[in-house]
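Input/output pair, single chain:
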Amino acid sequence: MSSIEPVAIIRANENIEEVLSNGIDLLGGLGQISSPVLIKPNICTISDESGSSVTDVKVIEAIANHFFKQDSSLCIRVVESDSESKFAEEAYTKYGYNELEKNFLKKGYDFCLTNLSKSSLKRSEFKGVYFIDPELPQEILQESYFVSVALAKTHHVTVLTGVLKNQFGLLPRKDQGFYHSHIDDVISDMNSIVRPKLSIIDARFGVKGWNGPKTKKIGAFILGKDPLSVDATLARIMGFEPEDVPHLMKAQGLGLGHLDPPILGTSIESVKVSFKSTK
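Output:
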C-alpha cells in the first residue's frame, strides 16, 4: 500500500452531504476528531459575480452535519477574515451563514461564526520564509481539527486558487493585497502554521478568475487529507501542470502533500476541463 495519502474525486449530485460522505469514506474517514473543529470557507467577496466564487453555505452545512453525526458534542467554528472585497459579518449575512448558525444552535449544536479580523492576536514562534514570529488570531494558533473548503478558480496572481491559497484568507488585516508581492512564500508559511487535516474543493464549477464572471462546469468535489495533493489534482483537472504553479512547488518538502498522489473515485480525465492562466 502506498504511503502517500490519496485524493478522492467524487462526481457531484444534488445530495451534497452524501457526496462528501462518500469521499471521506474513500479516504478512510476523518481520523481522530477533537474540538474545536475549524472550518475555513472561501468567502472572498461581498459580490459574487460568477455565482460560484464564494463557498456555498450548503457545503458548510453538509460538512458540519457529517462531523456532528460522528460526535454531537463537537465545537465547530467557521472562520473567515475581512478582506479588501468584503467585511466578514456582512458576507456571513448575505450568503446565509448567519441563518445556518441559528439553525444549528436551535438544534442544540455548538456551532458559531468567527471573524478573525476581530479576534485577539497572539504571537507565534513560527519562523518561516516570510513570517518571523507573526501575530495571528489566537483561534488558528490553538490545536484544532482544521478543514479548508476551497473552490476551483484561476487567479491572476497565483495561477489557481485552491486549498493552499484558501489559508491566505486567515490573515486578519483587511488590506490583504499587502502580501501579494510575496504571495507564494506567504501561502507556504500560512499552511505550515495552519495545516488542514481535511481539504475539500467544491469543483462543481471552475471560475475564470478569482470572481469570474465566467465559469466552466466540472461537476466534482475533490477531497484529501493533504492540501498540496488536493491542489495538484485540481491543477490537472483544470488543465495546468502542478509544476507551473509556484506556490505548489514551494509547498513541496513542507509535509503538505505530493504533486502526484493516488486518485480514488472517478478519474482526472473524466472531469478534466481546460482553463487558461490569467496570471
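The two ends are 38 Å apart (CA to CA). The chain has one domain: 7-271.
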